[in-house]
Write a structure and sequence with these properties.
With 315 residues, the chain is an alpha/beta fold. The protein has 2 domains: 170 residues, Rossmann fold (3-Layer(aba) Sandwich); 93 residues, UDP-galactose 4-epimerase, domain 1 (Alpha-Beta Complex). Helices cover 40% and strands 18% of the residues. It is globular and about 55 Å long. Strands 3-2-1-4-5-6-11 form a 7-stranded parallel beta sheet, with helices on both faces. Strands 7-10 form a two-stranded parallel sheet. It is built from 11 helices and 13 strands.
């Protein structure tokens, strides 16, 4: 009986993208902090990242149940954290992008509003900052940019007239263990660990704000502790380290830390059309809450490299 009472006193958080990179780290962190965690996934989702905690959480397969089912099963879902996304890099259709980036989160936002959820946390990306200000889509991922902007506008609408608070988190360049092989950071790390002959790169002058996944997760965890009754209905936070480093400097750091002989062939690839040459988070809002990254880039990169080294069985 005591255990049941304790379970009822836990705050309940619903996460989309819980099997993905950011979502899996977030799921494990919140379970460790004592939250009741629900994840929405597909019946065919790869759960390897959370296989060790599956028995500790509740999951629903979106292709097998109604979106409102979790809200009916739990007396109160305190917060929704939306991390699922489709970028369109793998030739996904417009319908797939719209379904994941607009329809699914909008249905969740409506359900949260109807069932008394306090806060909806939306995960946005930093390169949408210019698009949101000047209405010019990022040509590298125009359909993704458009879909994220449209959903953010719905979030503002719900915050203005609904019963649910909407928090938009603009995430900078995330990296860390168990990231997808297709990401730039993981690709460079693995190529250097394998001592590839060379890596073809752009000129490397573009600067990015690299944020370690556990540091990003700690920022979300801090936001969850805010009292929604004492916050604005709509808020935006930029989430990064607060420092920008060039792609050239990042790649050279990885090469040094892995002791690779790999040639970094800068200039072998052209810049993308409308390449973003500088992106850096303004983390003043997080600093006011008492948050800052726990480690510097070099120490966090070493952690990532060692994790990838183990995964590749490299001594």
């Amino acid at each position: 009986m005591k255990k049941m009472i304790e379970m009822k006193q836990k705050s309940t958080v619903l996460i989309t993208g819980g099997t993905g990179f950011l979502g899996s780290h977030l799921t494990k962190r919140l379970l460790k902090e004592g939250y009741e965690v629900i994840i929405l996934k597909r019946s065919f989702s790869d759960t390897r990242r959370i296989s060790d905690v599956l028995s500790d959480l509740t999951f629903y397969n979106l292709d097998e149940c109604d979106i409102q089912q979790p809200f009916r099963d739990f007396s109160k879902i305190d917060a929704i954290i939306h991390t699922a996304t489709v970028y369109g890099r793998s030739q996904e259709s417009i319908n797939e992008i719209v379904q994941t980036n607009i329809v699914l989160p909008l249905r969740l936002l409506q359900a949260g509003n109807d069932f008394g959820t306090n806060t909806y946390f939306n995960t946005d990306t930093a390169f949408n900052k210019c698009f949101n200000k000047c209405s010019v889509p990022y040509r590298g991922l125009p359909k993704y940019s458009l879909s994220k902007k449209q959903f953010m506008e719905w979030g503002q609408e719900f915050a203005r007239y609904g019963n649910i608070r909407f928090v938009n988190v603009k995430l900078e360049y995330l990296y860390g263990p168990e990231d997808n092989d297709s990401t730039f950071t993981t690709y460079v790390i693995k190529e250097c660990l394998n001592n590839a002959a060379q890596i073809e790169l752009t000129g490397g002058e573009q600067k990015r704000d690299f944020i370690y996944v556990e540091d990003a997760v700690s920022a979300y965890a801090l936001l969850l502790k805010e009292n929604p009754d004492q916050c604005l209905p709509y808020q935006e936070y930029e989430l990064g380290s607060g420092q920008a480093l060039s792609i050239r400097e990042f790649s050279e750091m990885v090469k040094k830390l892995t002791n690779a002989q790999t040639k970094l062939n800068f200039g072998a690839l052209p810049y993308r059309e409308d390449e973003i040459m500088f992106s850096q988070a303004n983390i003043e809002a997080f600093a006011k809450l008492g948050w800052q990254p726990e480690g510097n880039l070099e120490s966090r990169l070493l952690q990532t490299i060692e994790a990838e080294r183990k995964a590749l069985h490299i001594i």
